[in-house]
């Protein structure tokens, strides 16, 4: 079987999507299939990483932070993609990653070439856009593009039942399978703990995350636990808001900001931290989403403090029945500060962290997710 993966982001760029797609490619290769990847050229200084798949890159526009994000960068990827997908060797199936504009290109080209495709709908982009300062017209156009791409798919894969319910509410009736999400245990092995007064937020912080609440919570926490540091690793649209809030509270000297780093470089930070932090802002249309950053933390053996609604709550409550996975908090400064205090006053031991890492590898492995996706791709190709 020949599979073509289409995504604007792929390894070695640090992101949940890169790890996920790389795991799917690795599984397909292990099963003896051929894999082509059509993706953007990585940032300077980051040569393409391949485990046997043919990675075909082309230059794109990037935003000020180096991401392929925004209308012009998306167009700079999607327009060349149309020709590359149209004239490349015919695959048996295409596996695609949003944005919705890419879904439009894939549906049109695959229809012309009579190629089935599988759509990875980890979330609903047009829902997330409602939390950004964009016009209603832009949201309606994005919604139309997204539904067009989804409805052309032979199959859709997603991370949770909440996304399935949202797809059905939007009128998408295509077959959907919940393949879940997991940790790439090869990229995030157990991280040896270090005794530091540190909390880490590792990943993007967009409007639906509402990560600015962590700054208010940390300010309250510092009143009883001075000397701690809150380290943000990554970036996002809400970074200026987070920085402004820290300045307003007078705690800029206790907060650090690091650019995105490769997964292998994140391990020491997770090992040093008392816990990693993750949030989902309540009362938004995005409450069904996973905070995917928790999986890498759990895999490394670092407890998680999660604040907000959604399936991440159930994930941590379930894990806490077997190991010490962390704290679940109401999305509020006082409640999060209390959870920080509990974690700081009784930090997880090395044995507890090792047990957490082992448990995560057994129950939430990215490899298991990749096997489920590979099976769907094989079945889709067989059906034609």
In short:
A seven-stranded parallel sheet has the order 3-2-1-4-5-6-7, sandwiched between helices. Strands 10-9-8-11-12-13 form a six-stranded parallel sheet, with helices on both faces. It has two domains: 200 residues, Rossmann fold (3-Layer(aba) Sandwich), CATH 3.40.50; 166 residues, Rossmann fold.
CATH superfamily of the largest domain: Glycogen Phosphorylase B
Q: What is the H/E string?
A: EHEEHEHEHHEHEEHEHEHEHEHEHHH
The main pleated sheet reads as: 7 strands, parallel
Distance between the termini: 12 Å
Using only C-alpha atoms, the radius of gyration works out to 21 Å
Question: Uncertain spans, ≥5 residues at pLDDT below 50?
Answer: none
This entry's quaternary arrangement is single chain
Shape: globular
CATH fold-level name of the largest domain: Rossmann fold
What percentage of residues falls in helices of 4 or more residues? 40-55%
How many DSSP H or I helices? 14
Given helix and strand content, the structural type is alpha/beta
The averaged pLDDT comes out at 93
Into which percentage range does the β-strand content fall? 15-25%
CATH architecture of the largest domain: 3-Layer(aba) Sandwich
Side-by-side strand order of the widest sheet: 3-2-1-4-5-6-7
CATH structural class of the largest domain: Alpha Beta
The count of strands amounts to 13
Q: How many individual domains?
A: 2
Keywords: Glycosyltransferase, Transferase
InterPro entries: Glyco_trans_1, Glyco_trans_4-like_N, Glycosyltransferase_grp1
Protein name: D-inositol 3-phosphate glycosyltransferase
Pfam families: Glyco_trans_4_4 (PF13579), Glycos_transf_1 (PF00534)
């Amino acid at each position: 079987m020949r599979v073509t993966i289409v995504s604007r982001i792929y390894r070695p760029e640090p992101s949940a999507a890169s790890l996920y797609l790389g795991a799917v490619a690795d599984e397909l290769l292990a099963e003896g299939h051929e894999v082509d990847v059509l993706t953007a050229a990585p940032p300077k200084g980051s040569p393409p990483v391949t485990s046997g798949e043919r990675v075909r890159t082309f230059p794109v526009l990037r935003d000020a932070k180096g991401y392929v994000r925004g209308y012009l960068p998306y167009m700079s990827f999607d327009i060349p993609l149309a020709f590359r997908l149209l004239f490349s060797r015919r695959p048996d199936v295409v596996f695609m990653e949003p944005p919705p504009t890419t879904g439009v290109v894939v549906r049109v080209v695959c229809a012309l070439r009579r190629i089935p495709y599988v759509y990875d709908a980890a979330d609903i982009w047009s829902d997330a856009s409602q939390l950004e300062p964009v016009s209603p017209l832009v949201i309606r156009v994005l919604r139309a593009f997204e539904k067009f791409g989804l409805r052309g798919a032979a199959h859709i894969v997603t991370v949770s039942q909440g996304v399935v319910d949202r797809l059905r509410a939007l009128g998408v009736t295509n077959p959907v399978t919940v393949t879940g999400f997991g940790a790439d245990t090869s990229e995030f092995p157990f991280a040896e703990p270090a005794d530091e007064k540190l909390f880490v937020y590792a990943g993007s912080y967009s409007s639906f995350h509402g990560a600015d609440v962590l700054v208010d919570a940390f300010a309250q926490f510092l009143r009883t636990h001075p000397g701690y540091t809150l380290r943000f690793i990554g970036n996002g649209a809400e970074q200026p808001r987070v920085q402004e809030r820290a300045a307003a509270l007078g705690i800029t000297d206790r907060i650090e900001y690091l650019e995105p780093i490769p997964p292998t470089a994140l391990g020491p930070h997770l090992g040093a931290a008392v816990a990693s932090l993750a949030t989902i802002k309540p009362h938004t249309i995005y409450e069904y989403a996973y905070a995917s950053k928790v999986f890498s933390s759990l895999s490394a053996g670092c407890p998680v403090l999660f604040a907000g609604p959604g399936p991440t709550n159930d994930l941590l409550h379930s894990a806490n029945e077997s190991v010490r996975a962390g704290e679940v908090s109401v999305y509020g400064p006082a409640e999060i500060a209390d959870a920080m205090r509990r974690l700081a006053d009784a930090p997880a031991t090395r044995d507890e962290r090792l047990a957490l890492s082992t448990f995560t590898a057994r129950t939430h492995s990215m490899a298991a997710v990749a096997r489920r996706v590979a099976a769907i791709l094989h079945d889709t190709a067989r059906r034609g």
